[in-house]
Specification:
- The protein has 99 residues and is an alpha+beta fold.
- 20% of the residues are buried.
Length: 99
């Protein structure tokens, strides 16, 4: 049986999440560390693995609390690439090395 190399999932960070307070008071956004944690949680859920190294990440537009993001994961033998969109707009992308 061939392992699934592609996976997609959605997430939303609640407006009352503790990370939102103070980030930033008049214009709240979800911190990058929380976005990457969502990606890592999705990777672990799908492939039961923990990447060893974030090889690159690019954040193009902030995610605001309560906004839905769709994450696309693509895995090969050495890396997992990820991208996230809100609607058709790219929010962030990057890759993790597996070893």
């Amino acid at each position: 049986m061939k392992e699934n190399r592609h996976h997609e999932f959605e997430f939303t960070v609640d407006v009352n999440h503790p990370c939102i307070e103070g980030h930033f008071p008049d214009n709240p956004i979800v911190p990058a560390v929380v976005l990457l944690d969502q990606v890592l949680t999705g990777i672990d859920r799908v492939w039961s693995c923990q990447p060893r190294h974030l090889s690159q990440a690019k954040f193009l537009r902030p995610l605001v609390p309560g906004e839905r993001a769709t994450v696309c994961l693509e895995r090969d033998a050495t890396r997992i690439r990820f991208s996230a969109k809100s609607g058709a707009e790219l929010l962030f992308n990057g890759s993790f090395l597996l070893s």
